[in-house]
């Protein structure tokens, strides 16, 4: 029987990756859209050629890899260029994710994306799990992790779906504001519940 798909998302520094890692430890197949975004722009892939043709050779490093820093600067200052890039990459990333999910063999499979809601990838999932933390925790954790100011963190958060929007899509919420052991026990509780579901629905 084909596994059903769980969409996993959460705001910056909510602890998505740690939650995802524990699901993987429990034997669940997982595809990370950030990883897929890296695969689609590898040398030899059509997306990289299209990006180089559009932005010029400056977006390539000497070894033919994508120069992410240069590309980031180019699209950061131009919403139109960012939209061009997203319209090229989003369908390719969705295709990579869909191919992975089609090959998954665990009882359910996970697609993880920080932009699950914004990119429309949530439509690939039968159920949505949001890893949630209070905003002040997000800001503190991100400032520590990325050495950013509170203003910079708020600007990043402003580019993501609001917490309210994310939560409005959630079938399940894991509030990740305690220690690691507690988070892992929550993942195990959800995992046991998910194993009882048929196609993601009780």
From TrEMBL:
<feature type="binding site">
    <location>
        <begin position="13"/>
        <end position="18"/>
    </location>
    <ligand>
        <name>ATP</name>
    </ligand>
</feature>
<dbReference type="GO" id="GO:0005524">
    <property type="term" value="F:ATP binding"/>
</dbReference>
<keyword id="KW-0418">Kinase</keyword>
<comment type="pathway">
    <text>Cofactor biosynthesis; coenzyme A biosynthesis; CoA from (R)-pantothenate: step 5/5.</text>
</comment>
<comment type="similarity">
    <text>Belongs to the CoaE family.</text>
</comment>
<dbReference type="InterPro" id="IPR027417">
    <property type="entry name" value="P-loop_NTPase"/>
</dbReference>
<dbReference type="Pfam" id="PF01121">
    <property type="entry name" value="CoaE"/>
</dbReference>
<dbReference type="GO" id="GO:0004140">
    <property type="term" value="F:dephospho-CoA kinase activity"/>
</dbReference>
<dbReference type="GO" id="GO:0015937">
    <property type="term" value="P:coenzyme A biosynthetic process"/>
</dbReference>
<keyword id="KW-0547">Nucleotide-binding</keyword>
<keyword id="KW-0963">Cytoplasm</keyword>
<keyword id="KW-0808">Transferase</keyword>
<keyword id="KW-0173">Coenzyme A biosynthesis</keyword>
<dbReference type="GO" id="GO:0005737">
    <property type="term" value="C:cytoplasm"/>
</dbReference>
<keyword id="KW-0067">ATP-binding</keyword>
<dbReference type="InterPro" id="IPR001977">
    <property type="entry name" value="Depp_CoAkinase"/>
</dbReference>
<protein>
    <recommendedName>
        <fullName>Dephospho-CoA kinase</fullName>
        <ecNumber>2.7.1.24</ecNumber>
    </recommendedName>
</protein>
<comment type="function">
    <text>Catalyzes the phosphorylation of the 3'-hydroxyl group of dephosphocoenzyme A to form coenzyme A.</text>
</comment>
